[in-house]
Design brief:
Shape: globular
Helix content: 55-70%
Strand content: 5-15%
Largest sheet: 8 strands, mixed
Radius of gyration: 29 Å
Length: about 800
């Protein structure tokens, strides 16, 4: 008889089930309060999520924050967790043993990723190879193994073994784990990192593990439990694998879509993670109520089809998300109200499928368990299969399905996989369960929701960056109408986000958007009024020639619309290398739409006598691993309040850039002023000054932005004028219409020092130290303070 058949119709056991331990069993310490396991699992979930978030940040510094680097870290974590759940269900080790191992390994892993690996890997370019990346991520897998193994170990030490409590215990334990994970997902980026930094947050996570270690538990009969046969791998565990794959694939799609509609901020990512985890916890707590009223097959079948229907409902909610956001945002002017609106919309879209999915794995484990010992073993295997499936699902969705077919098609693929997996579920619980009327009703509901979402789905609107639209236009109700005036010439799915090229005749502007954010813009007709960022991007490319001279090698971080790179190629006359983290940007610029909207840029990027070297990779990780030195390094990151851009505005990054410049080389850095306060800008400037002795601040005419320049060699005005009139620079400045006089800083030297001192030292100390974690919190808050900042700078300089 197969394992699944035996478990579907279990035969009477030759050995009677052991009786539950009495409350005052002599093998326990009477005075000790015995834990139900929920408290420990809550703490383990919180610590695990906190450490996972910290490790992703730490390893990104070396491996990169692009898809390849993040995928290695998450795969190591998920595979280690899967192995840990399987080992924890088979080995007789106590929870304290696993937690002690997790504490020691977690401490070493945090030190390895935060200090030892960055110091040891300086200049070691072999870290770009996948086998080496996997090798240096091994500590993550080992620590995740110990953390995950503690889960079934705590399941095993429960003190009540009555069979009627199986669903109650499975629901309670899994809910506690999810709620703890939700707390870690919210507290780490929103409170711990901005207040106490990465070191303090890691210390908190390890202290939480210590607290879990001190919880009392009963451990009298571990030897007897070790003799029990471990559950065989069967159809129910394949179902758990499918649950993990589908759930994590959905997480990838949801995070991407929500980021493009509402903004990829810490708020959105934190709310999405918390909604999924809290929803799962709600589902787990409802499970015992279902178990009292329905038999196992009905619970599993109804739960699965409820999940399918909830997926359709979620897709429908996301399809309506742009209009819903605009509706709630009309008449709203405060950042706090918009922040609350975004959080509510995220929860409304993600909570229903999260609740439905929360039933399944604890129901699978409890449905085949005769006692608490069996529940611990079954839960360990089911959780392990779910983690392994999660790694597969996340990679398939992020690397294959979304770039190939888009987010909407990926949701249909996931729905088909959910329906197909239901057939696998039927082999585990009996085919009659699929004939239940509730299953038919829920299938009809799923199809209805999916059809409505498909009819409403608009990839161009979902990727339009509704969160970036003018508050004035939104409040007046004209934002959507204004967007419909745009002509979408190109739209493609990248590995990280959707990339589009748009043309707006009314404003005489062509835009290149990545994930809804404008990353490059040029006028359609040069010389006429436009909303383009042309002055800033041209000045970014010209300043290396003015500050460091021509002929040396220039590195540009970020391609965007290609204007800065093309300007550097023309002005510096030396070799130019450019790094872009999203490869679809280069495909967009190569397309007919790119040729039409960015003709000057296209000619210099992909043709001409000396085109630049274009590399798809995370530039920060490259600079860390490769010790090559450059004449000039130009950085044009996205806004400082984006999670992946914030590390490029820190003292650590500026010191790294300074170390990669030849003597006399110059660093050129773009800083957007809108949505940040004077104190935050001062912290950025202070961090920049900590890496460079000579710092100048330039203001591109007519913009709310500044360009920081550090290093370089001070040259006489005559040489500066000669460089300004050189043929390459002259061609670039004529495109913008700049005159014969070269630009001068709006503030520099002692005036800049006095300005920083007037702002309390320029945010040095706590603010500067936590800048990487504080900046992502301002994205949804802010008013445009660029005018105030520019006025204060000019006043300090006496202009």
């Amino acid at each position: 008889m197969t394992d699944d058949a035996a478990m579907t119709n279990p035969a009477p056991s030759a050995t009677p089930n052991p009786a539950p331990n009495p409350p005052n069993n002599s093998s326990h310490t009477p005075s000790a309060r015995r834990s139900s396991g929920a408290e420990a699992l809550f703490l383990i979930g919180a610590a695990t999520m906190m450490l996972e978030l910290l490790w992703v940040r730490q390893w990104a510094r070396v491996l990169g924050s692009d898809l390849d680097g993040v995928a290695v870290v998450l795969s190591a974590f998920l595979l280690g967790s899967g192995a840990g759940c399987l080992l924890g269900s088979r080995l007789p080790w106590t929870p304290r043993q696993w937690l002690a191992g997790a504490f020691c390994c977690g401490l070493l892993t945090t030190l390895w990723g935060g200090s030892w690996l960055p110091a040891w890997s300086q200049g070691w370019d072999s870290l770009a190879a996948l086998p080496v990346r996997i090798l240096v991520s091994t500590p993550i897998a080992v620590t995740a193994l110990c953390l995950a193994a503690a889960i079934p170990a705590w399941f095993r030490v429960a003190t009540e073994a009555a069979n009627t409590k199986m669903y109650t215990r499975a629901g309670l334990w899994t809910a506690a784990l999810d709620l703890g994970s939700a707390l870690g997902a919210l507290a780490t980026p929103l409170a711990l990192l901005p207040i106490i930094g990465a070191t303090g947050a890691a210390g908190c996570a390890l202290l939480i593990l210590v607290a879990a270690w001190f919880l009392p538990f009963a451990s009298s009969d571990s030897s007897r439990r070790a003799d029990r046969a471990a559950p065989g791998i069967g159809a129910r565990h394949a179902v758990a694998f499918c649950v993990g794959a589908i759930a994590f694939a959905l997480q990838v799609v949801w995070s991407r879509l929500l980021g493009e509609v509402l903004g990829t901020s810490v708020l959105i990512l934190g709310c999405a993670a918390a909604a999924s985890l809290v929803g799962g916890a709600i589902g787990c707590r409802v499970l015992p109520w279902l178990a009292q009223r329905f038999e196992r097959g009905t619970i599993l079948a109804t739960t699965w089809y409820s999940w399918l229907a909830a997926q359709g409902a979620s897709a429908l909610a996301i399809a309506w998300l742009p209009e819903a956001y605009l509706h709630f945002a009309e008449g709203t002017v405060s950042g706090e109200s918009l922040t609350l609106t975004k959080g509510v919309l995220v929860v409304a879209a993600l909570l229903p499928p999260a609740v439905a999915s929360g039933f399944i794995i604890p129901a699978l484990a409890a449905g085949w368990s005769r006692d608490v010992d069996g529940l611990a073993r079954e839960t360990g295997v089911a959780q392990g299969a779910g983690f392994c499936g999660g790694g597969v699902g996340a990679l398939c969705a992020g690397v294959w399905w979304i770039p190939a077919w888009g987010s909407g098609a990926t949701l249909w693929i996931i729905a088909v996989l959910s329906l197909t997996a239901a057939a696998l579920l039927a082999s585990a619980v009996g085919k009659r369960a699929l004939l239940r009327p509730a299953a038919a009703v829920l299938l009809v509901a799923a199809g209805t929701f999916g059809a409505l979402a498909h009819a409403k789905w608009d990839n161009e609107l979902l990727g339009a960056g509704v969160f970036q639209w003018s508050r004035e236009d939104v409040a007046a109700g004209g934002a959507l109408a204004a967007w419909r005036e745009r002509e979408i010439l190109y739209s493609g799915e990248g590995n990280l986000a959707r990339v589009s090229i748009e043309r707006v005749e009314r404003t005489n502007t062509c835009f290149l958007r990545v994930g809804g954010r404008v990353e490059g813009s040029v006028p359609i007709r040069v010389g006429e009024p436009s909303n383009a960022d042309l002055p800033t991007e041209m000045l970014l490319g010209i300043l290396p020639a003015l500050e460091a001279g021509t002929g040396g090698e220039t590195l540009v971080i970020g391609v965007g619309g290609g204007t800065t790179v093309a300007t550097a190629v023309t002005a510096t006359a030396g070799p130019v290398t450019a790094f872009e983290v999203e490869g679809e940007v280069l495909a967009a610029l190569r397309s007919p739409a790119g040729i039409e909207c960015f003709p000057w840029e296209h000619e210099r990027l992909f043709g001409g006598a000396s085109p630049p070297t274009l590399i798809v990779e995370d530039a920060r990780a490259y600079l860390h691993r490769n010790d090559k030195q450059w004449q000039a390094i130009v950085c044009q990151p996205s806004e400082p309040w984006l999670p992946w851009s914030a590390p490029l505005f820190t003292a650590d990054f500026y010191r790294l850039v300074a170390a990669r410049l030849v003597p006399g080389g110059a660093a050129v850095h773009w800083v957007q002023l809108y949505r940040i306060e004077v104190e935050e800008f001062a912290a950025i400037v202070s961090a920049f000054c900590s890496a460079f002795e000579r710092v100048r601040v330039f203001h591109p005419p007519g913009t709310g932005e500044v360009i920081l320049v550090g290093g370089g060699v001070e040259c006489p005005p005559q040489l500066w004028q000669e460089r300004w009139e050189s043929p390459g620079v002259d061609e670039c400045r004529q495109r913008v219409g700049w005159g014969d006089h070269p630009p001068t800083p709006i503030i520099a030297g002692q005036a800049l020092t006095r300005w920083l001192e007037a702002r309390g030292g320029g945010g040095s100390g706590d603010m500067q130290a936590q800048l990487e974690y504080r900046l992502p919190l301002v994205g949804d808050r802010g008013d445009d303070r660029s005018g105030d900042i520019l006025t204060s700078l000019k006043t300090a300089e006496g202009k």
